Amino acid sequence: MKMLIKEFAELTGVTVRTLHYYDKTGLLKPSFTDKNNGYRYYDEKSLERMQEILFYRELDFPLKEICDILSSPDYDKYTAVRHQKHLLTLKKQRLEKIISALETIEQKGEINMKDTFDNTQYENAVSDFKEEAESRWGNTSAYKEFQSKNIKTDVYADFDGIFGEFSVCMKNGLKSSDSDVQALVQKLKDFITANFYTCTNDILAGLGQMYVCDERFKANIDKHAAGTAEFVSDSIKTFCQK
Q1: Helix (H) or strand (E) holding 81
Q2: Which of 42, 127, 153, 240 is within CB 3.0–4.6 Å of 205 for a Cys-Cys bond?
Q3: pTM of the full predicted structure?
């Protein structure tokens, strides 16, 4: 599927002007821009990301926070969907209470304000969700450095590609201590430093543990091949023990 910006705007219900702004800020880049005529094209991945953006907009998240969430190295779409469903369910329940109160006024002329506009549960849930990414690092300099960067979408594809290289090494029978694998760990470390935050050996060691202990990371890495996350973790451990 390849759509011009006007077609994509009509399909998603946003304006062309909005898509231009999303492109400028890095929130949603076109899949391809024709250098000859400047036409922007969008594809299935663009549609998937727009869907995620629209869900967060429905939850009243500021665009900057949406960009931060979708750009987080530990962002997991399926976990986010569960969070979004929970939050939208809470929002729906609140709206149903308000509608019910209006129906009571309409039918009986009675006004029942008790708990009708109480939004505490929803607001607390949204607050917890917004803090999830930050809670992994707290107020570390790495987190602040990551927050300050405007990371482009294609960086994550390149990042994922490194884990693909690890899986190839594993399939070819290399050991985690082999020089080619250790060079790949250095490549991973350098990539994180260049694109996300300064990756010290201590941070790298922590990431190595997280890649196998956090089921979201493990599943995302193991999509290349079963056992890749464990192989990456062991390779990082060897690298950091030098």
Answers
A1: helix 77-108
A2: 240
A3: 0.45
